Amino acid sequence: MTHLSMRSRSSRHVHTQPWFNPAVVIPMPDPQKPHPDGSAYRRLEAWCHDMRMSYWFHECTATSFSKRGRYLAAGAFILSTLVGAAIFSTLESLPSMGWKITAGLLSALSAVLTGIQALLKYPELASLHHQTAASLFPLIRRAEIELAQGPPSPDTLESIGEEWGKMQYDMPDVSERIKRRISKRVDQQIASAEQRSRGESQTRRLGTDPNLT
Predict the structure, then answer these.
(1) Distance of CA 10 to the CA centre of its chain
(2) Helices 122-149 and 154-170 sit at what angle, rounded to 10 degrees?
(3) How far is it, in rounded angstroms, from Cα 188 to Cα 206?
(4) How many other CB atoms sit within 10 Å of the CB of residue 43?
(5) Residue 143 and residue 47: Cα distance in Å, rounded?
């Protein structure tokens, strides 16, 4: 998985996400932050945040589909192996009716799992979401560079906005469950980072104010 190195000018709106990767930091847009061209800067900052969130939406969706595909494939393989071993063990003996029924049910279940795997196409879906996440990375880096340089020019803002709009239109769907799960964790990380920031500010104030020591 590609790892993003996120930076922001304001520590109040930066939080780490160990549930993704300890090195990943996502700055959150601050509507009240003043800039020479605040409207353009805040808009690009909000887009950048949305792109990063979309990146993780698709990466997590790809991981989920990959796991489901592996579980189905493993289940079908195990059942097929059991059926084959059962048939081989009864070649020189007459199996009971219960044994035949069990072997038949296992064989049917294996076929069902194989059919579900082919129907749902989990590996293809996982690859599609991985590619979508990877395609977002260059645009995210471009937006980061523009934010680091200050307020973007109108042409730059229009170019990034147009590209981001096209990508949103072509993106595969992400389940609301994954969006809620990731957004909830992001909110938790924001609250935790802000609490640490307040604690550090209070510690520095206590250490520098002679009236409080």
Answers:
(1) 24
(2) 170
(3) 27
(4) 17
(5) 8
Q: Please give the structure tokens belonging to residue 140.
A: 């995210």
- Report how far residue 123's alpha carbon sits from residue 121's, in angstroms, rounded to the nearest whole number: 6
Distance, CA of 145 to CA of 142 (rounded, Å):
5
Please tell me whether residue 204 adopts helix, strand or coil conformation: helix
Helix (H, G, I), strand (E, B) or coil at 27: strand
Q: How far is CA 153 from CA 19, 33, 137, 147, in A?
A: 35, 18, 21, 11
Is residue 32 a part of any domain in this protein? yes
Q: What is the pLDDT of residues 7-51, one digit of tens each?
A: 333 333 333 333 334 334 444 444 444 444 568 888 898 999 899
Residue 185 lies in domain: 11-189
- The number of domains in the chain is 1
Q: What is the pLDDT of residues 187-198, one digit of tens each?
A: 787 777 777 777
Tell me, yes or no, whether 161 lies in a domain. yes
Mean confidence (pLDDT) of the chain: 75
Instruction: Please tell me the distance from the alpha carbon of residue 143 to that of residue 99, in angstroms, as a whole number.
Output: 64
Q: Which residues contact 205 (CB under 8 A, 6 or more apart)?
A: 212
Residue 210 belongs to a domain:
no
Residue 209 in domain: no
Residue position matching structure tokens 């079908």: 76
Angle between helices 122-149 and 97-120 (to 10 degrees): 30
Q: Estimate to the nearest angstrom the gap between the alpha carbon of 24 and the chain centroid.
A: 12
CA angle 171, 172, 178 (to 5 degrees): 110
